[in-house]
Amino acid sequence: MLIIEPCAANEPGRPAGGRHSSYHRRGEGLIDNAAIMKAMQDDLSTSQRITAALIENIRGVVESCRATAVFVYADAMAGEELPLPPELREKIFYISRTQSEQQEQQERGTPFIRVPNVNMTRLGQVKMAVFLALAKGLVNRGDVIVCLTGMSASENLDTLIVTEVGRDTEFFSAVGSEGRLPEGVLPQVIERLIDIAAELGSEGREGKPVGATFVIGDADRVVSLSRQLVINPFKGYDEEERNVLDPSLEETVKELSTIDGAFIINGDGVMVTCGAYLKTSLQNEQEYSLPQGLGARHHAAAGITAVTDSIAITVSESTGTVTVFRNGHIVTAIDKPRYQRRREE
Question: What is the pTM of this model?
């Protein structure tokens, strides 16, 4: 990997050659800028060779692993269709975070999974796509999935990941015996709330980081195990006026996420309340152990899903990580990348 760092004129270690010097210092040695440019060109051709090698060998990987699906991050292909053998096309799912790519793939009749339009690591792309596919019933526990991904708009694929759904506890665990959502919870509701949570984690609110908790499903039971920290802002509104699937409510949800407490939401997307204190905690720390460093928000989310038939989504205020809980355990966690790129249209 080639790392090029800008070197300002007044930075320590800049050579006496001044602004127009063809060298700059890194560590104890001098690096020739011409050599850097040549290395960049070589690196580009290397990326193309990597993409070609992955495509050339994908059939063997799929057959050897007996994979049931191939996930391809379409944004990395810049609109180009992947040249796969005919026998693999029926297994392919294109992944994208942009609406334009979604429309293009739908016109082609290609199976498609939309992920949140926020910056994610390559591993985050895969984890989010497989989680949403599992929630929609497109894949099942035990399925082997081959994933090809890369950087958006790079026109190159540089990463191959093979995973068995439900086997890796860091990836997907405790989703349920069949890997399905709680009874009555619509996949599109989970997808919508994942979108909102990912945007909150990535962008915060008015430039400030925010944390949030969304509990979906088994709402009556969840409400009975909670108490209001503030007056319920949804009280008195008709159900169709407070459904999270309504795009016009996105800004309302994001604004209310700044209030302490959790959102409690029906499986069909109707928001019952927000600003709710969850009166549950993990009683059996050995059975429901969480990684060190997680705070009260995460323990409350784990606790409520341990005693109700619900799923919880949290946004960490400190890190922006989106974590999904089910049956008292972490299902998956998607970290915010350390660098930021602009959102795509």
Answer: 0.72
